[in-house]
Each structure stands twice: as C-alpha cells, then as structure tokens.
Amino acid sequence: MSPLGRLYGLGIGPGDPELLTLKAHRILTTVPVIAYPTLENGKVLARAIVADFIRPDQIEIPMPLPFSVERSSQPYYDIAADKIAEQLSLGRDVAVLCVGDPMLYGSFMYIFNRLAGRFAIEVVPGISSVMASAAMLGVPITYRNDVFSIMPGTLEADILRDRLSKVDAAAIIKLGRHFAKVRDILLELGLLNRALYIERATLPNQKIIPITEVDPEAVTYWSLILVPSTTQPQ
Ligand SMILES: C[S@@+](CC[C@H](N)C(=O)[O-])C[C@H]1O[C@@H](n2cnc3c(N)ncnc32)[C@H](O)[C@@H]1O
C-alpha cells in the first residue's frame, strides 16, 4: 500500500503572482494534484493567480462553492473533502489554493477541519488581501496601542454598527451587495471620511475609488474597505 499523500493549504497571496512565497511556488509546482474553490457564479480567482505555473500533467480538483452565504456550504465542502481524500489515499500530495492567507476566512479551513487527523497537513501562510490593500492604498493601518479589527460586511447591520463603533482601525471584507449597508453605517459613525475602498488589490485591474463615488451595484466580491487609525504618528 502506498503511503498517504500530504495535504497543503497554500496561501497564494492577493492576486499579483509575484506575491507568492518561494515556498508556495515550490509546492505548487511539484505537487501532482491541486484543488481550488470556484464560486457558482463562475468566478475562479485562485486558479487564475497561479495559472502560469500549473502544468498540464497536474490533476485539478475544482471545488464549487455556493455564492450566497444564506446557502449552506457544508455539502459542498463534504464533496470537495471526499475528492481530496481520495487523492491523498492514493499517496498523492494535494495543494489547496487559497487567495490571501489560508487561515483567515479561507475556504481551506473547512477542508482542514474535515481532514485533520486523517492525513498530514502543512499550511503555507500567504499575504492577506488586507495587508496587500494597505500597501496598495499607501496607508499605515495601526500605531502603538491601536486595535485592528477585521470583519465581514455580511454581518447584520446592528452587529456591524456595534463592532465598528469600537474600532481604532478596521478592514471590512466580503462587500459585494453588502456595500451600501456598510457605507451607510460608516457614515452614521463618522468613519466615512477615513474609509478607503479598493477592489482586486494587486491585480492588473485593481481599482481604488473614493468611497462616496462607488456604485453599490457594481461592487465586486473581491473588494474591501480599510479604515486606518487616526493615531498621530510620532
Ligand atoms: C473569503 S475571504 C478570503 C480572505 C483571504 N483568505 C485573505 O487572506 O485575503 C474573501 C474576501 O477577501 C477579500 N479579498 C480577497 N482578495 C482580494 C483582493 N485582491 N482585493 C481586495 N479584496 C480581496 C474580499 O473582501 C473578499 O470578499
């Protein structure tokens, strides 16, 4: 019987392939199997980021996921985990591609939770979209004792308002159709003048738009708002 394969959670960064770590590149180009999330609406960012490094002889496992958070993603992850486990059981190493960092709101975590204990797992950290966005926007996020909060725009308005009312600095991810709700809360809390909007950070089609000029109907899932600290640097 062949030994079991190793599962890699591969952080591939926010979009620019040059932001892949050397380790992620080495593993990506040597594993026999790669898996990556695909959204039901056809968006496949993870594979696109590393498309130039994928060889035709590598086995690919697309992992379809529901686009809406209202739909349970559990059965989708069960199916994906089974397909990955099948390859690992055949002794093949599998790298699951993850935009940004795998352990920060990453789809890999759900595969990790399903397969931990059954297979050897190695996680390769990646540059998160949050960190990349601060770099692209050219703003320091936090100084000294500032507390930085990352939260999804998918939260209910009351919870989001409560959380945002306490932050020194914040990143709000998963905007899409939640943008208008987030923008209105930022306005209510007097944070809108500090808030910065960026989409597709580090990709060739990156856009930085003044937040008051963003069309809520056109906001992509691949966008976030950064509210940097107002602490005065010394
Ligand atoms: C499921 S979370 C995954 C976060 C990812 N693991 C990370 O570390 O960046 C997806 C959210 O990350 C943000 N995101 C990912 N890539 C982005 C990019 N290139 N530019 C702006 N936001 C991005 C968006 O807010 C998106 O809705």
What does this protein look like?
By secondary structure, this protein is an alpha/beta fold. It folds into 2 domains: 7-124, Tetrapyrrole methylase, N-terminal domain (Cobalt-precorrin-4 Transmethylase, domain 1, 3-Layer(aba) Sandwich); 129-227, Methyltransferase, Cobalt-precorrin-4 Transmethylase, Domain 2. Helix content is 28%, strand content 22%. The protein contains 7 helices and 10 strands. It has helices at 22-30, 45-50, 74-89, 108-115, 129-137, 157-164, 179-188; strands at 6-11, 33-39, 59-65, 94-98, 120-124, 148-152, 169-173, 196-199, 207-209, 223-227. The strands form 2 sheets. It has a 5-stranded parallel beta sheet with strand order 3-2-4-1-5, with helices on both faces. It has a 5-stranded mixed beta sheet with strand order 6-7-10-8-9, with helices on both faces. Helix 2 links the parallel strand 2 (33-39) and strand 3. The radius of gyration is 19 Å and the shape is elongated. It starts with 5 loop residues before the first strand and ends in a 7-residue tail after the last strand. The model has no long low-confidence stretch (mean pLDDT 94). The chain binds S-adenosylmethionine (SAM). The site of S-adenosylmethionine has 26 residues, from helix 5, strand 8 and strand 10. The site of S-adenosylmethionine (SAM) has 26 residues, from helix 5, strand 8 and strand 10.
